[in-house]
What we know:
Number of helices: 7
Oligomer: single chain
Number of strands: 4
Shape: globular
CATH topology: Cytochrome Bc1 Complex, Chain A, domain 1
Number of domains: 1
Largest sheet: 4 strands, antiparallel
CATH architecture: 2-Layer Sandwich
Distance between the termini: 14 Å
Strand content: 15-25%
Protein name: NRDC protein
Keywords: Metal-binding
Strand order of the largest sheet: 2-3-1-4
Order of helices and strands: EHHEEHHHHHE
Structural class: alpha+beta
Organism: Origma solitaria
Amino acid sequence: YVRFHLISPLIQQSAENIVLFDTFVNILSHNLGEPAYEADVAQLEYKLVAGEYGLIIKVKGFNHKLPLLFQLIIDYLSDFSFTPAVFEMITEQLKKTYYNILIKPETLAKDVRLLILEHGRWSMIDKYQTLMKGLSIEALSAFVRAFKSQLFVEGLVQGNFTS
């Protein structure tokens, strides 16, 4: 089991940065779909999670090929690229995801409660409005460059691994 948390102070600076981060993680997951398929067949699992303060990479499975899968994820992260069509598709999916959160009373109530309790939190309404105003490909590219330049890493490795 390998888990790394790539923490960046950049994410919580604005609602736009949170939306750009969500877009980035979704595009990264989309890009990894085909190359990581063989790892899935070999019973290796991975998950990319857009956490509040950074990207969480979880990888688990048999230890002899796990570093290869982790390296694949890191390679796609470091050489991040996307097409305008993928960008458009992911932003449309995010609009639907945010909207679905807003129309469910229990998730909206949780969001409002956390907004009251946590200092500096951005509401789902802020994120949805930011996304509806429109994001640019240039803004996403600039955000990803800035994100990768301001990272702090926490990691946990468990299992049959040497130091």
